[in-house]
């Protein structure tokens, strides 16, 4: 005999065995039904059951359903919860609905009432899923369009200073490797890579003569160049989904001793992600050809950065980052080609 595929997972939470078994018998032919007798059991099994709707008793001995309802608003507010009560009153219904309940049914209930509640809740869940997917696709489109625009800006800078666009891709890639080794979450890394990729976007506001100068900058020219972190910050600050990555854009030239720019931050005032990125930024700059000098070797770059610990670079953290960079040196060489680079936003969740 061919086995039917169950269309949804339904969780029943009720201290009354009779209610649990009644709902299970009513729904088991069409759905996968899981029954639990307490809120604590439910909280411990949510991840394994993955319910698409929940029947929840309002009154239970150890923890009432309203408490669970409130907790579910922070755990997963997209799961419709139908409250079960033997004590119907308008106040009960109002309290349940205000706390996030999708619907409620009154004991004793009949079969048609149960099926109607399930159909209504699952239809709502499906519509919510469609909306979530629409929002996700819209988010992806916004990110893609934004980075197309940002990349065009970087190419505009590249027309002035060919170093900048390649550098932005290199440091974004290397930042993701280092941050991962330091234990940063994947989602956090993806967000911060935006800042790494766009950290020099403010150079669009620096004159060509300064960007393309074939030798070292004068004091006045350096003052002009020092404006680019703040210019970049001002360009990106209105974009909400970049907020978390803005410290990298603004503070990647701050120094541990407070002699950096634009804000003269020092020691622990420097955001953690900016302190990490500043090391990577300098490493890639040292190991790249510039208008005014040839690139340094990997070993020499590490030596120069090490000498800057306690003045330019944060102690302890810098040693950790350099160890990781050294570990990935061969990988870094293999991934220098722009074609192989995965730009931030390619894997946004």
UniProtKB/TrEMBL annotation:
Positions of the HD-GYP domain: 142-337
Domain Response regulatory positions: 9-122
Keywords assigned: Phosphoprotein
Gene3D superfamilies assigned: 3.40.50.2300, Hypothetical protein af1432
UniProt-listed InterPro entries: CheY-like_superfamily, Cyclic_di-GMP/3'3'-cGAMP_PDE, HD/PDEase_dom, HD_GYP_dom, HDIG_dom, Sig_transdc_resp-reg_receiver
Keyword Repeat among record annotations: no
GO BP, sorted A to Z: phosphorelay signal transduction system
4-aspartylphosphate: residues carrying this PTM: 57
Designated name of the protein: Two-component response regulator
UniProt organism field: Candidatus Jettenia caeni
């Amino acid at each position: 005999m061919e086995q039917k595929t169950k269309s949804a997972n339904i969780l029943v939470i009720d201290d009354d065995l009779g209610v649990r078994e009644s709902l299970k018998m009513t729904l088991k032919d069409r759905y996968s039904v899981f029954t639990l007798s307490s809120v604590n059991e439910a909280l411990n099994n949510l991840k394994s059951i993955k319910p698409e709707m929940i029947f929840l008793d309002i009154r239970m001995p150890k923890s009432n359903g309203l408490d669970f309802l409130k907790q579910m608003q922070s755990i997963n507010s997209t799961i419709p919860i139908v409250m079960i009560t033997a004590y119907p009153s308008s106040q009960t219904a109002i309290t349940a609905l205000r706390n996030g309940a999708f619907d409620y049914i009154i004991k004793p209930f009949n079969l048609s009432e149960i099926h109607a509640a399930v159909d209504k809740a699952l239809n709502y869940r499906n519509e919510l899923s469609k909306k979530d997917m629409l929002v996700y696709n819209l988010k992806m489109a916004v990110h893609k369009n934004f980075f197309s625009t940002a990349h065009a800006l970087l190419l505009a800078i590249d027309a002035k200073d060919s170093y900048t666009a390649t550098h932005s891709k290199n440091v974004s890639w290397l930042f993701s490797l280092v941050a991962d080794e330091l234990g940063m979450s994947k989602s956090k890394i993806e967000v911060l890579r935006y800042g790494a990729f766009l950290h020099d976007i403010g150079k669009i506001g620096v004159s060509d003569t300064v960007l393309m100068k074939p030798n070292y900058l004068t004091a006045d020219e350096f003052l002009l160049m020092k404006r680019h972190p703040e210019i970049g910050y001002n360009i990106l600050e209105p974009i909400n989904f970049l907020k978390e990555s803005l410290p990298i854009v603004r503070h990647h030239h701050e120094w541990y001793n407070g002699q950096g720019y634009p804000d003269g931050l020092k020691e622990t005032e420097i955001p953690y992600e900016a302190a990490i990125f500043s090391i990577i930024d300098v490493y890639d700059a040292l190991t790249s050809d510039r208008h005014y000098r040839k690139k340094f070797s990997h070993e020499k770059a590490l030596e120069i950065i090490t000498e800057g610990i306690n003045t330019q670079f944060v102690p302890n953290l810098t040693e950790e980052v350099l160890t990781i960079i050294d570990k990935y040196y061969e990988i870094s060489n293999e991934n220098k080609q722009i074609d192989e680079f995965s730009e931030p936003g390619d894997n946004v969740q």
